[in-house]
Design brief:
Helix content is 65%, strand content 1%. By secondary structure, the chain is an all-alpha fold.
């Protein structure tokens, strides 16, 4: 195991891990643990090319309980003199002890050691959920005004203005909670729709800043309120977001199953209508990424094909909080190519640029994925330029994204020349 870790080759680590067990773990069993195919495990074990896909490395090391000090891609490896040390740490790093009057934020050694407005605002957001069924007394705007307010917070989410979100969401959630007492059923259903979308905006902050417990709680609340809304397409939007829970846990099998079940619930007779086509296409678009993360290229291609057909009926727009259309589909095609380490797909994507009309968060996602893919191909300067472009598109999203810090950490160790611009970018993102 020590020799395998010294090579920094995940395939050799897989093989050494299997052979170190008694009895030896078959490739098929390891593949099941990692949510991969047996063929993909075999390919990785044979490959001499190091993998730089930081998100996959992190997920696989989590699945195998690799101690954090051995994760070379996070800069934490040190020499191991005893194989037993490999099994000394079986859990993730402990959370910091609770201290009164201190806002808790997720442990992230690479993050800047300072509290920003998002972390300061999270306790208020948590409290607004605690009292969602017994809100504080206060004024409540009309339905039309609340609809405008919900549209604004979702615009903040799509444009990655997370500081604005934590400022406005607690009060808005309180108003929407009070508005649930409106007398007519039709009004209460409208409020349920608005509340679901407001909770989604809150999840945009929670998940991006790695408050995974809060994100899961928000998604559960979204599922409940979506049922009250009596909108057949709203549960599909919630299922799209729910994938985050499975991404956080690494449960790609359940993620795929949940997305397919949600797509099956959409009435196919209405697929020529843009909102229905968008809901259906978005689910398949996301299912393609899930399949690609699991190394299932054929299934990913099938989902992309289905999403492409849906995009013919749905022009690029925001549908119940989700951007869908031809441009959004191209961004997900890049994500699939990056997950599958498909050089052809990556190079094809690199010749296209997302239009400025797309939400800033989605545009920055494209450049972050492209940076990761370029880094995997050994194109260091292109990766750096992509990260700079992502920062220009959505600075708050880029700075909070763990893949950005991980990619910059790799660039700091491997880039042939460390320019002042690269060092400034790494310092800004908290990479080291």
């Amino acid at each position: 195991m020590r020799e395998a870790f010294e090579t920094r080759n995940i395939g050799r680590i897989f093989r050494a891990y299997r052979q170190a067990q008694s009895p030896t773990v078959p490739q098929a069993t390891l593949a099941e643990w990692l949510d991969l195919t047996q063929g993909r495990v075999s390919e990785l074990e044979r490959s001499r090319r190091p993998m730089n896909d930081l998100e996959r490395l992190e997920r696989w090391c989590n699945a195998l309980h690799v101690p954090h000090h051995l994760r070379w891609f996070n800069g934490g490896i040190r020499e191991v003199h005893d194989v037993q040390e490999l099994y000394a740490s079986r859990t993730v790093d402990p959370a910091p002890a609770y201290a009164p009057n201190q806002s808790w934020a997720p442990v992230d050694q690479a993050a800047p050691q300072q509290l920003d407005i998002v972390h300061v605002g999270i306790p208020r957001l948590r409290r607004s959920l605690d009292i969602l069924d017994i809100p504080d007394d206060g004024p409540t705007r009309s339905l039309a005004e609340l609809r405008t307010a919900v549209t604004l917070v979702n615009e903040h989410r799509l444009e990655a203005r997370y500081g604005e979100l934590v400022r406005h969401l607690p009060g808005l959630l309180g108003e929407l909670s009070r508005a649930r007492q409106l007398p007519t059923t039709a009004d209460r259903r409208q409020v349920a729709t608005l509340l679901t979308l407001a909770l989604r905006a809150a999840d945009g902050v929670a998940y991006k800043y790695r408050y995974f417990d809060l994100s899961a709680r928000l998604i559960d609340l979204m599922r409940t309120t979506a049922q009250e809304a009596d909108d057949p397409l709203l549960p599909a939007a919630v299922s799209y977001v729910r994938t985050e829970t499975f991404f956080a846990s690494g449960d790609l099998h359940t993620a795929a199953r949940a997305l397919e079940l949600a797509a099956d619930q959409i009435p196919t007779r209405a697929l020529k209508q843009a909102p229905t086509a968008a809901a259906f296409g978005a689910l398949h678009m996301r299912a393609a990424v899930v399949a690609a993360r699991a190394g299932k290229a054929d299934i990913a291609a099938d989902h992309l094909l289905t999403a492409r057909h849906a995009a013919h009926a749905a022009p690029e727009a925001i549908y119940l909080g989700t951007a869908f259309g031809p441009a959004s589909l191209r961004i997900h095609e890049l994500a699939v190519a990056a997950e599958l380490r498909d050089p052809t797909g990556i190079q094809r994507a690199a010749t296209w640029h997302p239009p400025d009309a797309l939400p800033a968060e989605r545009r920055s996602h494209y450049y972050i994925d492209l940076a990761r893919a370029q880094l995997d191909l050994g194109h260091h300067e292109d990766a750096y330029l992509c990260l700079q472009t992502a920062r220009q598109a959505a600075p708050e999203h880029t700075r909070a994204h763990p893949q950005v810090r991980q990619a910059l950490s790799v660039l700091l160790r491997t880039h042939p020349t460390l320019s002042s611009d690269l060092l400034d970018l790494a310092a800004w993102a908290g990479a080291r």
